[in-house]
Amino acid sequence: MTNPVFTLLTGLADANVDGEGDRPAIKRINRSDSETVVRLAFRAGQVMAEHLAAHPILVLGQTGAIDFTVDGQTLRLEPGSAVRVDGRVPHSLHAETDGTVTLVIVHGS
Questions:
Q1: What's the pLDDT at 18?
Q2: How far apart are CA 89 and CA 51, in angstroms?
Q3: Domain for residue 42, yes or no?
Q4: Nearest partner of 83 among 57, 107, 54, judged by Cα
Q5: Contact criterion met (CB below 8 Å) for 48 and 15
Q6: Which domain holds residue 49?
Q7: Residue 88 sits in a domain of what CATH number?
């Protein structure tokens, strides 16, 4: 349900039910003038190869254990943890277990 002052976002921790391909299931949950919210649902062993985003991002651990590599460091994203990365910085993700992360792409003010 969308309201002029808020939007309730659900399904952020939904599992990858689309099979066992090489890449996580990616679903855009919401887009506004200021940000885009995306769910990345991984099966254990799936990888999102090194890439970059044009804008700053915030990646929040929802379920499971997802390794996030940026600037030569690997960080473990689990429920209750997050990482913020400037735009145009290469990073990659690797699922140690089945799990989901929420990606927030900040593209406005």
A1: 72
A2: 8
A3: yes
A4: 57
A5: no
A6: 17-106
A7: 2.60.120.10
